[in-house]
Automatic annotation (TrEMBL):
Keywords: Phosphopantetheine, Phosphoprotein. This is Peptide synthase. The keyword Chaperone does not apply. It comes from the Bacteria. PANTHER family: CARRIER DOMAIN-CONTAINING PROTEIN, L-2-AMINOADIPATE REDUCTASE. InterPro entries: AMP-bd_C_sf.
Length: 50
């Protein structure tokens, strides 16, 4: 769980929701320090199209 701009965010919940999409095989969500403060970054691995 991370706190961004006053909101508590569960990164695992976002990853779980992303994995519900049929085109996504793997996902990782991170909190990253950006120029305006912390932001979320999602890294995705697509399912094979074949």
């Amino acid at each position: 769980q991370v706190k961004i701009r006053g909101y508590r965010i569960e990164l695992g919940e976002i990853e779980t929701r992303l994995l519900e999409h049929p085109a996504i095989r793997e996902s990782v969500v991170l909190d990253v320090d950006g120029p305006l403060g912390k932001v979320l970054a999602a890294y995705l691995v697509p399912r094979s199209s074949t």
